[in-house]
Each structure stands twice: as C-alpha cells, then as structure tokens.
Amino acid sequence: MKAIITSVAFCVALACPAIAQSTFSPWFVVIGAFKNEENAKRQCLLAHEQNLPAVYAYNTDRAMYYVYVRATQSRDVAYDIVGRLQTGTVFKDAWLFNGELVGQPVVATETAVASNVPVDRTETTVPDNTELVQETEPETTPAVVVQEEVAPVQRETRPPVGKPMRFVLINRETGNPVNGIIRLFEDERSNQFKAYNPGQTVYVPAPSNKDKRWLLLCQIPGFKAYKRSFIYDEIATGQEEIVLTMELQRVKRGDYIEMEGVKFYNNAALLAPGSEIALDDLYAMLEENQRYKIRLRGHTNGTHARDIVTLGTSEDLFHPSVDNEKRHVPAKELALLRAEVVKLYLVRKGVEPTRITTKGEGGTQMIYDPRGTLAGLNDRVEVEIRKH
C-alpha cells in the first residue's frame, strides 16, 4: 500500500458498523457487558434508539455478552468514538476492550427480545480495569402518582472534586476556535481516559499515577494529532480557572485522511445513513481553508467485477429507491462511483467541483484479508490533500 505521510482518522460511531475478527485483537467500543443475553439484547435496542449500530458477542474469559458499537484495529479511532459517546450520548460509561469475542456479532431486534424474561437486576457491567458498574435497563415512563405537596428538602451541596480547568482548541493558521474532544490519559498504554469538550469549565481530578501527570491527546478531523503532558500539582492554583490552550495544525499537502466514518451499502455506490457526520467534518475543513484541493480515492474489497446498484436518476445519496440503476462493473469502477458520490455530497454542500478530483483504486490497495471478518473495511474512501 502507498506510504502514508500522516494519517488522521475521521470516525463517528453513528456511521461505523461493528465488525469482529479473529486475526488480531481489535479494539471494541463497549457500552455494556451482561451475563444474561436478554439484557444484552435490550442494551442493543436502547443503542438502536440512539441511532447507534450496536451488536453483541460473547467473551468466554468473563462469560459475558459484550454489547459494542465499533471494532477497529486503531486504538486512536476507538478512543475518539468512546469520547464522543461519553460526551454526546446516554452511554457515559462507554469503555474499550482489547481482546477477542467469539462467534458472529448478533444484531438484536424487537421480536428477538423475550418479553416474558425478567430483568436480572443483580447483573453487572464490567469494564476492564475499572470498578464494577451496576447494570441499568432502559428507562420506562413511570406511572403518575398524586402526592400531597410537601416542603422541598434542602440537600447539602458538595464542592466539585478537582481543579477548575478550561481547554481551548484553536486553529494555528487562523486563530479560530476548533471543536473536538480532549482526552486525558494516565499513561499512553491506558485504555481508560476522561473526555472533555473545549470551551467549558470542568473540574479535573488528580491522576492516580506516581508522577501526578496527565497525558493530553486531541485527534480532531482535518488536523494533525496533538499530544502534550502536564503535571497536575504544578498547574497554577491561585487562579479561579486554569486555561490550557492548544494550537492545532491543519493537515498539509501529501497527507491522507482516512474516512472511516463514511460507509456504503454492500455492492452499491450509495452512502450508508450516518456517513454525513464525517462528510460534514470534511466539508468544514474545505470551507475553512479555500486553498485546499483534494483527491478522493475509492477502494473496494476484492478486485472482481460484480453486480452493483448506482444512483441512477435518484437524488437520494443515502437510501435505495426504484430510481436506482443496476449494473455489472469492475471493482475500479465501483470504487470510482463511490468517490463520485462523496464528491457530489460535498458539491451539494457548496464546495467548488474543481477543488475535488476522484480516482477508483478498486481492490489494489486492500488493508485486510478480503476473506476475513474485517474485509468490509477494505470498502472505503481516502482523502488525499493535493494542494494547501
């Protein structure tokens, strides 16, 4: 595969189907672990209500069903997804599991969940290297109970734990603020981290390691990864609020952006719903810097020709319709058509068409075994920065 100078991962949980595999130990983004399979199904359904593509599989070491929304070879990609879940969804306790889950991932459906099986309230969700967390079921609407009016109870308010801090992300070139997730690790090998949004005052507790050092990591779409560390006890304490400012550098000419959040229907040049989240990040990058010109490189799983579905006369990039066209094409043509669909989305958003070129690589640069369980990740679009 072509050498990649710098790789920046575009990843959004909503757009990434979870895939298990057996050739290496992937990083699973887990939202629950259950002894009872019915409870795992219910957790899946709760995630589906949040438009998260949750599935579950079995962990033989712990004898538990793990519900997860993503499996990836990249720890950084998994970190990013966990951060998004913790700051933007009801799954505040999302965590990472690096290991092996047996069997094919199971997709839960309403009809598959037994309505007559009681919920085991003693069951626990067990993240690796963390305290046990009591399993909770999706909330139901409680019955209305009329009560006599009583005086409000005065509750003791405890002061927040930690130092008040505000993280600021800015574009080094323009000075404009940047949105993203800031992650704090106790060490580089840790699977656990604390996620924060920029621009908000938060209370950061002291790390438990000997040096009292936090490792800060930002991986923002369209920017090079930013990493720094700071010793917690050496941060100024005389201020009401500690502000840490991070200047992020945009990707440059020759850099590649892996669009992991952009997915397609199988054997089709149609975008899977949810892909617009990652595409909007790409659009924001192009809109901010009008000098950028990019090349979209489409890739497929395998080099064989196949029967596919293309856009045809339909205007809908995300959903199949009777206006789609069926064709038999080589792998490179399917890859090119997918790159063209991504370009069309960006052009509709307002990007000048001359700033975007496309190329179909087909299956000439596959990352994974085309017959393995990660084969679907070979179907992808990469963004090459051609001009900056």
Structural class: alpha+beta
Number of helices: 4
Order of helices and strands: EEHEEHEEEEEEEEEEEEHEEEHEE
Strand order of the largest sheet: 1-16-21-17-20
Query: What is the CATH superfamily label of the largest domain?
Result: OmpA-like domain
Biggest sheet statistics: 5 strands, mixed
* CATH class group of the largest domain: Alpha Beta
Proportion of strand residues:
25-35%
The beta-strand count equals 21
The CATH architecture term of the largest domain is 2-Layer Sandwich
Rg over C-alpha atoms, rounded to the nearest angstrom: 23 Å
> How far is the N terminus from the C terminus?
24 Å
Averaged pLDDT? 78
- Estimate the helix proportion, in percent: 10-25%
- Name the overall outline: globular
Domain module tally: 3
* CATH topological fold name of the largest domain: 60s Ribosomal Protein L30, Chain: A
- pLDDT below 50 for ≥5 consecutive residues: which ranges? 1-24, 117-122, 128-150
